[in-house]
Amino acid sequence: MADLMEAITSLAKRRGIAFQSSEIYGGLRSSWDYGPLGVELRRNIRNAWWKRNVQLRDDVVGLEASVIMSPKVWEASGHLEVFTDPLVECLKCHQRFRADHLPGAHAPQSGHEDDETTIDMHARPTCPNCGNDAFTDPRNFNMMFRTHMGPVEDETNEVYLRPETAQGMFVDFTTIQTASRKKLPFGIAQIGKSFRNEITPGNFIFRTREFEQMELEFFVEPGTDEEWHEYWIQDRLGWYTDLGIRGENLRLREHDADELSHYAKRTVDIEYRFPFTDWGELEGIANRTDFDLKQHEKFSGQDLTYFDQDKDERYHPYVIEPAAGVDRALLAFMIDAFREEEAPTAKGGTEKRTYLALHRDLAPTKVAVLPLSRNDQLAPDARLVFDLVKASWMCDYDDAGSIGRRYRRQDEVGTPFCVTVDFNTLEDRQVTVRERDSMGQNRIPIENLRAYLAERL
To answer: What is the pTM of this model?
Structure first.
């Protein structure tokens, strides 16, 4: 399985999907840049999430809240007090680690200040760096990035980079509900960057300090929350399978009572079978009750209740929160789509073919236009075909190297269709369309090409 991750990270860098940030200066740990294909893959993941959860529903609206919010927001939400991880230091090499990430250790996530006293370090976990088994006692480490707003760097001007997008949807609840005139149940959706000063980031883009979240806060009438929670668990699981992730690589995991966050009545994770950790969290779906609205009402002094006209009463809605990460989803989609097989060559032999069997909605490039050779006769028609399809889909024009190598390049990044313009095109005005997974080919008149592709894309 380590070989699979090595193949994924190598492919990601080589083909401009994701690679280490600031690499010419030695890189910055846990910081990643997304190249041309990575940008498109991320955009397609965001679009697929937004389409499913906002565009195709009449009970969810969108929001883009500020990354930097009033420090009072984080005081009310509990982040200043309990948004911590247990930090330990190896007594030999002095490397620091998150205690509950060491093999054999266990740290509840209950959100109490004395969590460090309940971490079981008696299993004698060993240091991943030097093999030593002696550590300092765990202590709480707040993961929020702190900065200052304005020219004076003192405590009165301290602000934080948000560790989650959720709080913006809670503090703007009344404004959004009034502006959109939505009745319960309804949701507020947001996609945006969050920042967490993780103690032990790693495993490529799985755990990073800067990441992008796709979160939905779905507000419901108290008493209906359990039913809606179950609905969103199944709906979110279906989103991944609908986009091509194999069901056997997904599972649901119920949070134990001692690991529930301080705001949660119940939380269920969708986990993926990552090669480096067997099962790892892909998305969490939490029943946050009315904790957040009540907290912000208490600290702000503003009324954050909902007036139910049908019942002629006010109450604080309960909230169901599906929270996913763009980066972690991208990694799961790439791993699940990675294929290696023996494919026939033009000379009658076989060779290893690597391809990404990405769902066509996610593929960074939908269509590649390939003139059979870099020939002045073929170029005008090849450009005509490229201009014909590029208005509808993200396309690539590639005329460098043999046609076989160009097919392999497109397969490797998951391009569903390659359109080849050859010398027969000059006479019959037809092109050859090759499908990625089956490698099947069809001869299509240029005038029918867009309709042919549209039916399949």
So the answer is: 0.87
